[in-house]
Amino acid sequence: MNCESTFSLESRICLLERQNRRQRWLILLLPLFALVLGAASQNESLNAKKVVAEEFVLTDGKGNTRASLMLVDDGAHLVLQDSSGKARVRLAANPNDAGPMLLLYTKNEKTALATGQSKDNGIGFIEFYDEGNVRGGFGGNAFKK
Questions:
Q1: Alpha-carbon distances of 49 from 40, 46, 52, 57, 89, rounded to whole Å
Q2: I want to staple 58 with a disulfide (CB 3.0 to 4.6 A). Which of 1, 67, 76, 117 is the partner?
Q3: Average per-residue pLDDT for the chain
Q4: Angle at Cα 33 formed by Cα 30 and Cα 34, nearest 5°?
């Protein structure tokens, strides 16, 4: 059966927009779900004392930094680095007072993708970058002032 004969263009666009919204929420909630799942799977017999610090740094066997959990002026940031020590993933709690954000970087540490909650109206967004310059996306804008 031909797709064009059963659905109008308008109904197909509405269906795609609905799917798009679901996927955006999934992308935004996935890191939170992973944290909750990880916390729930902890062994209850482990009763560690509280550790308080401004920064935690994970290093590999050679002493290279591979991950950091740190406090910066605009909130907490979790940064994951590749084997050469370059930042590849950043989960930020409140950059630029915009709300939570997930950033993916190229091997040259240029922004490749950003997703999170926009500063202007709180709408979720995804932005795609080429060499650190915004090339497309949808939703709100995190960097609007």
A1: 18, 10, 10, 19, 29
A2: 67
A3: 79
A4: 90
